[in-house]
Amino acid sequence: MLKKFLIAFLFIFLTSAQVSAQKILFIPHDDRPVSFQQPVEVIEQLNYEIISPPAEILTRPDDLWLWFNENAPQAVAAVVSSDALLYGGLIPSRSHQISYDILISRVQNFKTLRENNPNLNLYLFGSLMRTPAFGTPGDREEPDYYGQYGADIFQLTKLLDKQEISKLSRKEKNQLATLEKNIPDEILDDWFARRVKNLAATKKLLDFTNDDIVNFFIIGRDDNAALSQTHRENLQLLAYMENIPKTKAQSHAGIDEFAMLLLTRAVNDLNCELPFVNVQFNRGVGEKTIPHYSDEEIGQSIRNQILIAGGMFVPNPKNADFVLFVNSDPNGNTFEFHNSFPPQTLSKRQQKYFARNAENFSDMVSDAVNKNLRVGVADIICANGSDNFLMNQLRDKNLLFKLQSYGGWNTATNTSGFALGTGILAKKMSRDSVNRLLARRYLDDWAYQANVRTAIAEELSKRPDGLAIYLNLGSHESEIVQRENILMRDFAAKNFPSVKNFIVSNPWRRMFECRIDFSE
């Protein structure tokens, strides 16, 4: 009788544990599709249940904390944005007027959460404030004054950073003095004061990580440069983190990809798995490339991303569970012709250069696929959007749906991180699930970012209000979305005709990103 009771008890315990293990709590740093919809979709292909807050409270930290505390007991793991829980999101973190005392009180909430949920695996990602090289008037992502003074602020901090690392020339000293004189004091006071508060909150979160209140904390440097205020603050942060193990906290270039990487880590930890990952670069500079919007070599960034995802780099692709192929420029350049307004036109010489590069790289990918390696592609040669020359090669060689993952969106680290996390997890998915995720990437990164958005930007450039519409669709939203859907359907029909029944929209009412919804 006792034996039957114990067996029954064990069955109930294991069954309930299995149900609990299927729930992962996720709080993104905003509701852009790449931040919210797309990482969730990847994890859902593994039959985990993702618990996420309603999008409308993501910008309200106090409501978000109430939701977090209420839902945390259901989950065995939580991947959460500190920017959302402290400031109301990544973008509000750059322009908020929250007092130091309120910020620290919100940081203290993590301690209370841990006390109430001692067994929760808590993975945190946050950001150092970025330092854009210039400002765009009307840009919602920075304080209003950055549109006018952004370029000067960037140059000022570049010189301050260099001054602390080495020495300034006489010319640079004069330039620094001129910038300090020309930028109003109240603007510099506001800009620097916010960064001081944010850095203090980050250091407190590092203390909590060191004390095991947080299991793992990754700090991102978004839109960074080798010399800038972000780089300057990161040097302070690295010194502060010196005695915290890298298995607990790290600081790296990038930000938008960290949700995907930490969700991957959560799955690996729950399954006690350590995936082996190999990385292959295109010919030329390869891993030594320092892409735009980064202050470190891409090879180092990807090695770090493997660690964040809970994997291990291995030098031999034959020993790897997943091999990431990185499409980089042989000379280490990052091209932005998809991002320009109006788009740049490639010369015949440039076209030959890209075509030759793409052919070489696609041959590498084809060879690996034919050897039955599990292969993904990080397409980083362009700052945002796929390399059309490469994608045409992959299409013509029938490789598009033989990959495990693909990425070609936004910055190089965004691209590599998402392709890496998805590729590591693809081993646990059905082929239909993998193809569904690939279809979304081809629609977003190749069709939209590299072609449809570029084509509409070209059309808008001929209108006097074109740039304003491009940045804020406003009353033109219906017209633009209709045009997008026509071009997207045409592109898909020509390049991957099996992908149908989707609708494109612009949830942030601008052309920089899109949302793609499939109808079943």
Structure report:
The chain has 17 helices and 13 strands. The chain has helices spanning 2-21, 37-44, 61-71, 82-87, 100-116, 146-165, 170-182, 185-210, 229-240, 258-270, 298-308, 348-370, 388-396, 412-425, 431-460, 466-471, 477-495, and strands at residues 23-27, 49-51, 77-81, 121-128, 216-221, 249-253, 276-281, 312-313, 322-327, 375-379, 405-407, 502-505, 515-518. α6 (146-165) runs antiparallel to α7 and α10 packs parallel to α14 (412-425). It is of the alpha/beta class and 520 residues long. The termini are far apart. The model is unreliable at 1-21 (pLDDT under 50). Helices cover 50% and strands 12% of the residues. α13 links the parallel β10 and β11 (405-407). It folds into two domains: 2-270, Rossmann fold (3-Layer(aba) Sandwich), CATH 3.40.50; 276-518, no CATH class. It is globular.
Topology of helices and strands:
Elements: H1 2-21, E1 23-27, H2 37-44, E2 49-51, H3 61-71, E3 77-81, H4 82-87, H5 100-116, E4 121-128, H6 146-165, H7 170-182, H8 185-210, E5 216-221, H9 229-240, E6 249-253, H10 258-270, E7 276-281, H11 298-308, E8 312-313, E9 322-327, H12 348-370, E10 375-379, H13 388-396, E11 405-407, H14 412-425, H15 431-460, H16 466-471, H17 477-495, E12 502-505, E13 515-518
